[in-house]
Amino acid sequence: MQALRLPFDHRTDTASLRHAAHGWLISWQDGDVVEDTLLVITELVQNVVQHTGDGGEVALTGNGQVLVEVFDHSRNLPRLIGPDPRRLGGRGMLLVDAVSDEWGSRLTATGKVVWARLPVKPAAS
């Protein structure tokens, strides 16, 4: 099983998280899955930065699937909200839902984890 952990806070540039994840993923994943995984990471990290007032940690695991987990210290679970043309933002979890096989969240002893599973498509040789 392959794994990568990336801590972040409000000063962390999302591009640096994406770069580290890209380097880890590209050697064993198809480019489309890599791009979808980077989108999920961006959306989940931005949710933490925007809604929690704290940082967290991204954990990536590859073993028959790509599992993205984002841990933070908030106990407020995410939910899907339908798009409203009068509201800016609020579509991140819709994007996560669209590109992942499944997603969910659960409370932890110190906050919560939001996770998404993406299909594995091996990189072309």
Structure description:
33% of the residues lie in helices and 29% in strands. By secondary structure, the chain is an alpha+beta fold. The chain has one domain (2-118): Histidine kinase-like ATPase, C-terminal domain (Heat Shock Protein 90), CATH 3.30.565. Strands 1-2-3-5-4 form a five-stranded antiparallel β-sheet, with helices on one face. The longest helix has 21 residues, at 31-51. The radius of gyration is 14 Å and the shape is globular.
Amount of helix: 25-40%
In terms of quaternary structure, what is this? single chain
Low-confidence stretches are none
Count of β-strands: 5
Please report which band the strand proportion falls in: under 5%, 5-15%, 15-25%, 25-35%, 35-45% or over 45%. 25-35%
CATH architecture: 2-Layer Sandwich
Classify the secondary structure makeup into a structural class.
alpha+beta
Order of helices and strands: EHHEEHEE
Average pLDDT level: 88
- Straight-line N-to-C gap: 20 Å
CATH H-tier superfamily: Histidine kinase-like ATPase, C-terminal domain
Largest sheet: 5 strands, antiparallel
Globally, the shape reads globular
What is the C-level CATH assignment?
Answer: Alpha Beta
Provide the gyration radius in Å: 14 Å
Strand order of the largest sheet: 1-2-3-5-4
DSSP helix count?
3
Q: How many discrete domains?
A: 1
And the CATH topology? Heat Shock Protein 90
